[in-house]
Amino acid sequence: MSVKKLKPITPGQRFRVVNGFDAITTDKPEKSLLAPKKRSGGRNSQGRMTMRYKGGGHKRRYRIIDFKRAKVGVPAEVASIQYDPNRTAFIALLNYQDGEKTYIIAQNGLQVGQTVVSGEGATPEIGNAMPLANIPLGTIISCVELRPGQGAVMARSAGAFAQLMARDGKFATIKLPSGETRLILVTCMATIGAVSNSDHQLLVSGKAGRSRWLGRRPRTRPVVMNPVDHPMGGGEGKSSGGHPRSRNGIPAKGYRTRSKTKASNKYIVERRKK
Fold it and tell me: pLDDT tens digits for 82-141?
């Protein structure tokens, strides 16, 4: 994977850094795994705007991703690595030996022609999915389930990975991308390897229009609003705005909003870094 810095032949390309897309092998998605994707534009069922700064953007079709990896013991060949407009990671098209095709989140280093498999009998190689009970300690993993059979919910974005730290009884200790250390049942599935497209964080859009293509409308800074619109609004000239807080008055930048009585608190060994 690599990034390319463009020559400044236009103002929009002066600071632009684009993805090299070295890992991508095809630009034609699998038609049977596409679904329509309706856009709300930030409006509710009455047509009223309930979420600001959303709307527009290029039309997309959803790629149906297999997050559960439930085809246990059936080998699949990686047919292609593809771009997905709905997520930061790349996706891989799998051709199973029984003829079925599915998309999965592509791991870093996953190659076309490689064979991947899921289940307890799988070996701990990149792209294979297996329960935490069968993964060697210290292994870098991604696409981790939180509950058995739920499907992957953690460490799914570009370059993300977790690490299996320990096992004790029916729980495994996982260090998550946020820095949090958490207990998860050893029957939960995880995929070996870090998520692909780790250079995503290095990209620079170069111009405001690219945000519009992604469906993001211009965002008004709270300090330039009036007091009626935001707690940080008002004042003469360039006022600092007071303590950073949300539109509802909840403090930002360090204020903890997690409930102290939340049932899952007992599974958190160490909180994420401040």
Answer: 999 999 999 999 999 999 999 999 999 999 999 999 999 999 999 999 999 999 999 999
Distances (CA, A) of 237 to 219, 225, 232: 20, 12, 13
Sign of CA dihedral 51, 56, 61, 67: negative
Domains of the chain in start order, with CATH, are 3-201 (2.40.50.140), 224-265 (4.10.950.10)
**pTM here?**
0.92
CA distances 86 to 9, 157, 174, Å, are: 29, 11, 27
Contacts of 109-114 with CB under 8 Å at 24 or more apart are: 109/193, 110/78, 110/81, 110/193, 110/196, 111/78, 112/25, 112/78, 112/79, 112/80, 112/81, 113/77, 113/78, 114/77, 114/78
- Positive or negative: CA dihedral 137, 268, 192, 3: negative
According to DSSP, the β-strands at 34-36 and 268-270 are unpaired
Taking the C-alpha atoms of residue 240 and residue 157, their distance in angstroms, rounded to an integer, is 34
Contact (Cβ atoms closer than 8 angstroms) between residue 34 and residue 62: yes
Structure tokens at 237: 């000239």
